[in-house]
Amino acid sequence: MSNPLLTPAEIDGLAPADLPSYRIDRYQAEDERTSLSDFAAGDAAQLRSLYATLLALFERLKPVYGDPLLCLEAILRYLKEEDWSAFVGPLRQLGKETLARPGTDRLRRVLHDLRGGAFQSLSLRLQLMEIAEPRPEDAQQAFFLVRDHLKIMRNCVADLDLERYAADSSRQDHAIGLLAEKWTKAPFCGEDHRATVDVLCRYAGVICESCLEFSTLDRIIYNLMNNAARFTADGRVLLAMVPTPSVENPENVRFVIANRIAPEHASTLRDRFGDRVDELLRGGFTTGGNGLGLRICADFCAQAYGLADFDTARDGGYFGARLQDDLFLVWFHWPTAGD
Predict the structure, then answer these.
(1) How is the chain split into domains, by residue range?
(2) Quick one: fold of 1-28+171-339?
(3) pLDDT confidence tier of residue 130, bands split at 50, 70 and 90
(4) What's the N-to-C CA distance of the chain in angstroms?
(5) Which of 11, 119, 186, 275 is least enclosed, having the fewest CB within 10 Å?
């Protein structure tokens, strides 16, 4: 990678190399899981409709996704047959009826990832493909987004598709190469930006033991990527995945997402947080979002290591954030997996 945003030494220096885990089993966001009955009737119907639509698109693309040109042709046929923009318009109201009821903090977090996650980028990508000249790589990335958001939806709502949820729960090792494959040079769409992702991966082993766990990790990465794509000043985002404490003894993987930000955004962070930019991960602060995404990432990371609270995990270096001149970076860790 030419002109990297961070050097290997800078990545190594972000946090301690040895990060013990106090958890026996693998974390699969089970404490965040919901069922369709938790949602208001109108929202549950929208969730079923969204899932069915994405599943139908996935079945179209799955046989051809390995050939970018055929994948592009399949998506263009789909967009001619279906009015994607008209379909996603009402989804902006998804959750409104549910969140009007009391006691919905957990549902608020789940709805954040159902409406965001991979779906935010997918929705923008398909709308752009309706009005602009698409590229084959756009189509291949769209397939990954469809596939990933279907798994995120099952991760969030267990009874949305019981058969596939059961398959997601079964033991199936996931190598980190699956992440490198879909993110390397990925043209990722944020709200108002298009970013290209540079990937630095120094680990080649297993990172998750089931689809449910992998979609939990995806929920973190998509939240951080959505944030990075939204604020990148030069259209570049770095995703680094580095084993710790060493390549020879990979107990954890350090994930780093970094991007340059505009001077006014850097000033806002310094004015609000001073030298403790990592307080941003506590949640509640936003410049146009809802302040939930970064806290969800922090909580998932803490749970993956069996840590009791935000401060213990943050102060231990399990996750963090830093502003270096105009470079904003956030990191978290995930335990390696496999026998």
Answers:
(1) 1-28+171-339, 34-156
(2) Heat Shock Protein 90 (3.30.565)
(3) confident
(4) 31
(5) 275
